[in-house]
Task: structure prediction
Amino acid sequence: MSRLGIFVDRKTLSSAEQLNALIRCRDAAEEMGHGAEFIFPVDIRKIPQVDGLFIRARTDPMNITYVASRMAAFAGIPVIDDPDSIQVCSDKVHMYARLMREGVEVPRTLFLSFRDLTPARAREVFDELGSPLVVKEPSTSFSLRVEKVEAPGELLQVARRYFKLSDWVVVQEYVESTYDWRVGVLRGRFLYACKYIIPSQTFKIQDSVNGHVVYCGVESVPPQMVPPAVIDLGIRAGRAIGNGLYGVDIKEGPAGPCVIEVNDNPSLEGGEDTAYPHVYREIVHTLLEV
Amino acid sequence: MPDGQLLLEPPAPGEAITRLSGPARRHALRAKSGPVLSRGSIHSVERDGVVHLVSENYSYKSEAYYAILMQETQGRRVEPGTKAILDAFVVPVCLERARMDGIPVADYAISQSCIPAPAVIYGLNYFACTSHFEVLCDDESARELVRHVTNNGKYPFCSQRLEAGARIERAVSIFGNVSSTDPAMAGMAAGVWDSFCIPLVEIICIDGPCGLRLSSLCPVRYSRLTPAERDLLSAYLSGQVFL
Result:
């Protein structure tokens, strides 16, 4: 019997859906004959005592999840998400640079430094990428700090706001779609797939519309109903990042599927795995039995 | 779908340099001219195929961080690496890495509620910077300071106990050299340089009954350098001193 540590913070525990997902994870570990325990930020010194660590809190290199992940790595303990994956996926500049280097299809993308962004450069960006464009602050998650702009002045305005948080921003061509594919990849292999149905009032999977938060719909899709090109692209994107657990968001654009982003610590509490009942068993197996 | 495009503008490397020795150090301290250390400027020197990038701000998502990242993405050897930067400026990770590399480090704990004074505390959150630590001198003020560092208990913090008579010592390390004549601090700077390879960094230590122990590393503004430190750094950047 091995011991699985599930790293959580108070925010993880504040959501009923997350709690249910955590209990399913713990149950999966126990059904497989392993022990499972929750580890909180103040318990970080317990990490060397577990045999595998599964992080279920918002990851970022600047928060406690990176500490937990790095401590596990220092102790030679398998961890999802590993520190490298957190580093790459938490920073969209890093993530797109990696995907581009590995030849993974992404929308046309530019990185703009606060030093370079002048009105003339903003016009050039529109000439290069067309209109509209999507501007992203590199640490964005859940579609926060992602905006669509249609003119150079708007680009300057949004980018200047984001430059308060990052010296570089990401600018991408806009790919229109009514849904995103989410392909789950574990250790370079297909794990699950679902569709995120984008609310009609926005282009993001989560947005604030007239003061109300609107969320995407989640539709778990069996493997035989997922286009092979989408699965293939998801796997290639996951492998480009590393050997962990990833949720790859893919849009089917006019020129074929392209990766919108690769998420470490992908959500599993929204019904993403309904058609894949063994997702947690696979994760536990990877952490404790491989 | 067309591939994306990387905009790569790493700073041009300076002249090759090698390890500092005693006479070279004295020479460096005499150097009166060199690259302009203006606010936000990024400099680089190259030695044996490794680019050493010098900045007053290596923080996550800074210009320097991305300059290094782009070099790493292109497969070039660059120091410090982005991973070393992240490790260096997240206190518990910094201490664990340093400890594994044989550097004496402060005992630490991660907490979310009040802790007994005296202690040094560092915030662990997206907005925390290692240069903004708090020293808890007494239990009365501790409560308020902990509340401040944790944003009313929202985020955890890293605490390091201060033993009786312990003091906070600080020194600026330039390519692993400090202006301090204290051999313990000089050894600390050399160890930190070997472990993290950060050319310009401030070393915060706790000096107590167990000797000098690393508390944290933090960035250094060029404007805070003493004239001797500026001269030493300039000498490195202009190739007058050797790594």
User: Anything to note?
Assistant: The radius of gyration of chain A is 19 Å. Chain A touches chain B through 51 residues (CB under 8 Å). The first strand of chain A starts at residue 3 and ends at 7. Chain A has a mean pLDDT of 93.
